[in-house]
Amino acid sequence: MPGRSPAVQSLCTDLTCPVCLEYYSDPVTLACGHSFCCSCISRCWQIPCGSFSCPVCRQHFARRTLERNWQLAEAVQHLHAQQAQPSKGSGCAKRQQNLKLFCQNDESVLCAVCDRSQDHRSHSLIPVEKAAQEYKTQWTQNFRKQRAMLGANFPQKLLSSKNWSKTCRKPAAKFLKNVKSTIMRCETAKLPLPNVTLIPDRSNTLVQCPHQDSQLFSSRILLKEISQHFKADVTLDGKTANPYLVVYENGRRVKRCDTKQDVPDNPERFDSDPCVLTCEGFTSGRHYWEVEVEDGRHWALGVTKASVRRKGGVRATPEEGIWAIGLFWNQYRALTSAVNHLSLSQGLQKAGLFLDFDLGEISFYNAETMEHIYTFYHRFTEKIFPLVWVWSTEARIKLSP
Length: 401
Hints:
Layout: H1 6-14, E1 27-29, E2 35-37, H2 38-44, E3 52-53, E4 60-61, E5 67-68, H3 70-84, E6 99-103, E7 108-111, E8 125-127, H4 128-150, H5 154-168, H6 172-175, H7 179-188, E9 196-198, E10 206-208, H8 211-229, E11 245-248, E12 253-256, E13 275-277, E14 286-294, E15 298-305, E16 322-328, E17 331-334, E18 350-356, E19 361-366, E20 371-377, E21 384-390, E22 396-399
Antiparallel strand pairs: 1-2, 1-5, 3-4, 6-7, 6-8, 9-10, 11-12, 12-22, 13-21, 14-18, 14-22, 15-16, 15-21, 16-17, 18-19, 19-20
Helix pairs in contact: 4-5, 4-7
């Protein structure tokens, strides 16, 4: 079984929900003709948008009307039955506890006995853990490309990221089941068209927005949705503040002083670097908060892992468990091991930070212009805390309520 035929691949794509990117479950069809899982479209319409609209073509409906698509449900059922049949030479159904190898030719997981059979002797075999990691990396790249393409279609991004993180947490052998068809469905899923603007000229022609303007438009809509649905109320934790930092105004503000404060040297406190964390930390979900910066030329904002080193110096890099951007001598930077300058359209006075813990992203925005600045990608494995770093005594940092 070297691979699926183009006809079967096309069938898999046609039976894929454009929201969750999985095969349809309890499919329903809208008046515009597009179909979705009943649970997917229901959750999309739970997000207040002012009216009911199709996530694909954006057609608006005055009433919430869903029609069961029995033919589509039956087709999915037949496809599941076909894929449940063991492939030729698999022979491992009775030895599930000994599945150690993945056959790249047959897309099947094998035990130590079957890998020596005639059916797989000339095939490419690799350990299941290595195969799972390679496919997860490939799927992650495809998924993030789709998130970028979806732009302002935020309900789809919300639901598909939940499905993505759930699937990636599966054990290697379970994740590899039909893995190529899963990736193929993600690559070929039908996505909404880019935003277009109707030009009121003589020809009344639809033309696509310039890339930069379209990207900024999508960023503004996305940030507006994020701030409405995932706003987190965070305050600074004085017990973590470096002795040269003063936290005041009920944990909303912090500044750096010239003199060291008389505070206890508790385990949570940074004793060398001018850092302070928030009281609130996150272990899952999506969270958005804003930070205002008043004056000062040396500061940084971001997140850090709970186990970050508190005693002695620490480098502000992802390798040390810190994901942040900052201002240094009038130059904005993403704090990475190599110098990474950022180009902003205007000075940053209010930053918006959006943490998607499950997807492994921390994104930075200019909360005033709603311009996207930078995004770090990392698979978070422990509690994450918002962080403020203040080198300059002129800087005044404030967490917006």
